[in-house]
Write a structure and sequence with these properties.
It is a single chain. The longest helix has 22 residues, at 2-23. The chain is mainly α and 73 residues long. 66% of the residues lie in helices and 0% in strands. It has helices at 2-23, 35-45, 48-55, 65-71. It starts with a helix and ends with a helix. The chain has one domain (2-71).
């Protein structure tokens, strides 16, 4: 029973490490990639609200941490 438990724990640990390694790669951060590939990757990861927030222009006087966080500015 102890060997089985060790085997299952090892497999779960291995699968967890593999998924973390794959999830952390973002091609938009890779300077070796062409610019159009990097832009397409970044835009595909952003939500519509984040895209709108990046296009919004607000006065710096009105920008509080809550506004910046809420509207993705």
């Amino acid at each position: 029973m102890a060997i089985f438990r060790l085997f299952v724990t090892s497999i779960l640990l291995l699968l967890g490490c593999m998924s973390i390694g794959e999830a952390s790669y973002a091609s938009y951060k890779d300077p070796r990639k062409p610019l159009n590939v990097r832009i397409r990757d970044l835009m595909s990861r952003m939500t519509l609200a984040e895209k709108i927030g990046q296009m919004a222009q607000i006065d710096r006087v009105l920008s509080t941490p809550d506004v910046v966080k809420s509207y993705f500015i």
